[in-house]
Write a structure and sequence with these properties.
eight-stranded mixed β-sheet; 3 domains; Ribosomal Protein S8, Chain: A, domain 1; about 40% helix; Ribosomal Protein S5, domain 2; five-stranded mixed β-sheet; alpha+beta; 22 strands; Heat Shock Protein 90; 21 helices
Length: about 600
């Protein structure tokens, strides 16, 4: 029987390795930028075309490579940073395994020009699919320029799996931001399709963060620093009011290498506990300096995950560091142990206004004495009544659905019949400024005012996007809005759809827009917050939901512009909401699937009293 096990050819082995190392154009950007930083560059330029599918080029002024090193760097496992196995536990650079350049060259057309300071001529190498096409000397400046063209040109199946340009650009932007934040001492520039997106000079970390993430963070940065024998923490956290509903502005760097760690993220979240809403995420850029012997960076192909030999200690130090920074800057509430919370309210009042007033003291003693047995009995009766209602909550929900279905004569309850349910009358009122309650022929109808308004607005905005028309109200004084580069690129990409919703804006600079108008039905005074909220909600929906862009925009704007619980409504406004809700295609559900209407028929109400 013949042998069946064979060694793979180098080009196939490199393509298999590329499947782990080079997943998309952003992977190429990451590897090339990190190589430039490792080369001691003080200036790095990134040029991208067609979201990296056509071209990814990185030009640096680093130390360059000799002719033999330039040729050898495209071989698998060729590295200048590892000599023995022990070196793996003393790594302070980015690249070290020697897989990146070989993997990239196996799935793209690569051109490299490099020159050292003490060499008269540099080296030019062109490679296609791991095959060297050109290897010659050339004149070029000190440093290295690498162009990666037509990624996955020789693997069409892999190229077909690439996402749209907007998605791929978002990943490229993420990689660029991570490297640029980790090295504020290096100047970076970034061009996409000949448009300059970033031009970052050498600067301190706080200025680099503001330059990348937007001017809105200028007043939100809180310094964070802690030095111990085991680990050192430094960087910035954001004030609680800057917390957002979406992830993205959270950065951990271990020895200047960006990492992802849900465990360490939990330490920061725990420090912010009760200062931000439970579904929000604080901003932070935290640098962790630790002896490389205590970590293992060689656990993931992309090197974004590492292992600590004592992760619990790192967790505790990060949590304590963040808490102390919040307390130092008077963000964390403090306790006054000289303040008697039990009697201070009466003591202060009595001393200031009623000192010596015996009648007031007698009144206070009687009014706040322990409740009598009758009062305690009444209290327990009230508690039992509310307990019964609470137990019936799920039953009420399910029966409401059944009743709506029965009234409509269908089992899916997709359409409410206004004529059967609702007759406009003055008995309509607002319950706790959250629900609209009105009498109907069969009983009582409760409407969640926010959910109902979201449904109304959602269907209106979907119509605008489909009909390519949206009415606007113009500003007397335009408002300037500064965005992060990623958000700005997203807005420019969706410009046509945003204008269909009624927004009027112009591009002012690479990260700034001027808003001249908003949809006509938006109340004045919150135009800037509305535009920012639209972007933030869109990003949150994009993370949580699998819906198309137009539906996401309609949902996002409806969510951000709908009336909130706590808004007092007039009788006319309440009746208008009910009228508009019944005119919707799907009136009994909000865009997120929550009910807008709950029905209580007379039989159900009667059973509550039995």
């Amino acid at each position: 029987m013949s042998d069946i096990i064979r060694l793979l050819p180098d080009n196939i082995a490199n393509q298999i390795a590329a499947g782990e190392v080079v997943q998309r154009p952003a992977s190429v950007v990451k590897e090339l930028l990190e190589n430039s930083v490792d080369a001691g560059s003080t200036s790095v330029q990134l040029i991208v075309k067609d979201a990296g599918k056509q071209l990814v080029q990185v030009i640096d002024n680093g130390k360059g490579m000799s002719d033999s090193d330039a040729r050898l760097c495209f071989e698998r496992h060729a590295t200048s940073k590892i000599r023995t196995a022990e070196d793996l536990f003393a790594i302070k650079t980015f690249g070290f395994r020697g897989e990146a350049m070989a993997s990239i060259a196996s799935v793209a057309q690569v051109e490299m020009k490099t020159k050292q300071a003490d060499s008269e001529l540099g080296t030019l190498i062109r490679i296609e699919g791991s095959s060297i096409i050109v290897h010659e000397q050339t004149a070029n400046p000190i440093g290295t320029s690498i162009s990666v063209k037509n990624l996955f040109y020789n693997i069409p199946a892999r190229r077909n799996f690439l996402k749209s340009n907007s998605v791929e650009m978002r990943h490229i932007m993420d990689e660029f931001v991570r490297v640029a934040l980790a090295h504020p001492e290096v100047a970076f520039s970034f061009y996409h399709n000949d448009l300059e997106l970033f031009n970052l000079p050498e600067e301190i970390l706080s200025k680099r963060a503001v330059s990348i993430l937007g001017g809105s963070y200028r007043e939100q940065l809180i310094p964070c620093k802690e030095d111990t024998d085991f680990v050192s923490i430094s960087g910035y956290i954001g004030k609680p009011e800057s917390a957002r509903r979406t992830r993205g502005d959270q950065f951990f760097f271990v020895n200047n290498r960006f990492i992802k760690s849900n465990y360490l993220h939990h330490a920061v979240m725990h420090a912010f506990e009760e200062l931000i809403p439970t579904d929000s995420f604080p901003f932070y850029i935290l640098f962790i300096e630790i002896d490389p012997a205590h970590i293992d960076v060689n656990v993931h192909p992309t090197k974004t995950e590492i292992k600590f030999d004592d992760e619990k200690t790192v967790y505790a130090i990060i949590k304590a560091c963040v808490k102390r920074s919040l307390g130092t800057h008077n963000i964390m509430p403090s306790l006054d142990f000289d303040y008697n919370v039990n009697v201070s309210g009466f003591t202060g009042l009595g001393q200031s206004d009623h000192s010596g007033n015996e009648s007031f003291k007698s009144f206070a003693t009687k009014s706040f004495s322990a409740p009598s047995s009758i009062e305690r009995s009444n209290q327990s009766n009230w508690e039992r009544m509310y307990s019964g209602l609470e137990n019936n909550r799920e039953e009420t929900y399910q029966e409401s659905i059944k009743m709506v279905s029965a009234i409509n004569g269908s089992g899916d309850a997709k359409q409410l019949n206004k004529e059967l349910l609702y007759t406009e009358n003055t008995s309509t009122f607002q319950l706790h400024q959250k629900y609209i309650v009105t009498q109907v022929k069969s009983g009582v109808m409760l409407v969640d005012q926010q959910a109902a308004h979201e449904r109304i607005l959602f269907e209106k905005y979907i119509g605008m996007l489909q009909n390519k028309f949206g009415s606007s109200q113009q500003f007397l004084f335009p408002q300037t809005l500064e965005l992060s580069a990623a958000d700005f690129a997203m807005v420019v990409e969706m410009e046509d759809d945003i204008r269909k919703l009624g927004f009027v804006f112009n591009v002012f600079s690479n990260t700034t827009i001027v808003v001249n108008g908003v949809p006509s039905d938006v109340k004045g005074g919150s135009e800037k917050d509305l535009f920012e909220g639209l972007i933030e909600q869109f990003k949150q929906n994009r993370t949580d939901l699998k819906i198309d862009r137009q539906e996401n925009l309609a949902r996002s704007l409806a969510k951000r512009s709908a009336i909130r619980a706590g808004n007092k409504l007039s009788l006319t406004e309440m009746n208008s909401i009910i009228d508009q809700l019944f005119a919707c295609k799907t009136p009994n559900f909000a865009p997120d699937g929550n009910l807008t209407v709950v029905m209580l028929d007379m039989d159900k109400i009667g059973r509550l009293f039995m």
